[in-house]
Amino acid sequence: QGEPLPDQGRKPPEAEEPAENRAVTEESPLELDSLRIEVIRSGLPSDRLMEAARELPKLLRSALAEHHIRAGAVRLTIGSSPAATVQALNEGSVDIAILPAQGFASQETEAAVLLASGPGGEDAPIWSDCTVGFRTAVCIGSTDYGVNLANRRGKEGELPSWAEMDRARWGLLEADSLPGRRAVDLWLADNYEGRTTADLSRVTVYGDAALLLQAAEAGEIDVFPLDSAAAEAGAVPRAPIPLGETPRLYDAVVAVSPHREDLSAPELNLKDPLMFTLTQLCWYDGTQTLPDGTPAFPGNGYDRETLALCRDIFGAYRYGWAESGDLAPARRLAV
Fold first, then answer.
1. Could you list the pLDDT tens digit for every one of the 335 residues in the chain?
2. In the chain, which ranges are continuous DSSP H helix?
3. Other C-beta atoms within 10 Å of 53: how many?
4. H-state helical runs in 36-182
5. CA nearest neighbour of 165 among 195, 132, 206, 121
6. What is the C-alpha to C-alpha distance for residues 335 and 86, in angstroms, rounded to an integer?
7. Is the CB of residue 229 less than 8 Å from the CB of residue 145?
8. Which residues of 57-77 are buried (b: 16+ CB within 10 A; e: fewer)?
9. Under DSSP, is residue 158 helix (H, G, I), strand (E, B) or coil?
10. 135: Cβ–Cβ under 8 A, 6 or more apart, which residues?
11. How many angstroms separate the CA atoms of 183 and 199, rounded?
12. Phi then psi dihedrals of residue 309, to 5 deg
């Protein structure tokens, strides 16, 4: 019998015996009759989604068990949109959802956020937790006007005036880029009375971060965003001067239905088991070890195709602990 197809297989919430809220450990595993997980299409082709629906439930069930969550069955559904998946969370027809952070933040929900993903965990050991998320620096380049702009900053670090910022040549990424445009919008709005990049007079839009950094290095732009992921795409321009830093934003979140407070209870601490389950499924190839040389996770690891499938579905970034309040900047962007 096949696993549920996209947006199928959901059932109304059924009454369950509440779980005893105790920390999940090897000595005290969490026993569940079933666990209903929903993910988002993410623009993937239908054959990839069908493969995920077929392969991931058994992979999830096995990996969860290795982290002391023993589910009799794992059901995976694939939501058509963040709004549809948040509605399923609100109705209790899914227990846990993994979906884009911005899409989640734009919906009304009391679902509890347990994890969030984003850049930042690439160099952390696979067995450790990590701080993740986009945090973009708004930088001044070493152009003549950039140097003048830097010199006009107040002694206490006050920002240049809006008129001075508006005269600068800005380099940005496309309008849908989170670190290269939307985060800058949020920073400008916070510091310049609600103004955004749409109010700037001199903007050049670049197709990717590498091109933007090349333009900054060539002195073609005076002000530009720079985040860790962008820095890895090309050489950091000469001596950029940071004007400020945007709030932390995220790529995806793991959220629990408000009907399953037994799963989101702090004393249960499902954050670690879920975080390490996703880390194992997306990154563990069997070669990574703990400091003492023993395998980082149980088992032989996963082959390249399986790891790629899991990253296609769960996202390309590591997950770390989060809570609903961490999405406040994303909610402001959604307004």
1. 344 544 444 555 454 444 455 788 888 899 999 999 999 987 899 999 999 999 999 999 999 999 999 999 999 999 999 999 999 999 999 999 999 999 999 999 999 999 999 988 877 899 988 888 888 899 999 899 998 888 877 656 689 999 999 999 999 999 988 889 989 999 999 999 999 999 999 999 999 888 998 899 899 999 999 886 655 555 566 668 888 888 889 999 999 999 999 899 988 889 999 999 999 999 999 999 999 999 999 988 999 999 999 999 999 999 999 999 999 999 988 77
2. 46-66, 82-91, 101-105, 144-151, 162-167, 183-191, 209-217, 228-233, 261-264, 271-283, 304-314, 328-334
3. 22
4. 46-66, 82-91, 101-105, 144-151, 162-167
5. 195
6. 17
7. no
8. bebbbebbebbbbebeebbbb
9. coil
10. 183, 227, 228, 245, 246, 247, 248, 249
11. 15
12. -60, -45
Burial profile 157-190: b = 16 or more Cβ within 10 angstroms, e = fewer: eebbeeeebebbbbbbbeeebbbbbbbbbbbbbe
Q: Which two tokens stand for residue 264?
A: 């989101």
Burial class (CB in 10 A: 0-12, 13-18, 19+), 335: exposed
Q: Taking the model in full, what pTM does it have?
A: 0.83
Q: Which amino acid is at 276?
A: F
> The tokens 């996963």 sit on which residue?
302
Contact indicator for 165, 184 with CB cutoff of 8 Å: no
Cβ atoms of 178 and 102 within 8 Å: the answer is yes
Q: Which residues contact 201 (CB under 8 A, 6 or more apart)?
A: 166, 167
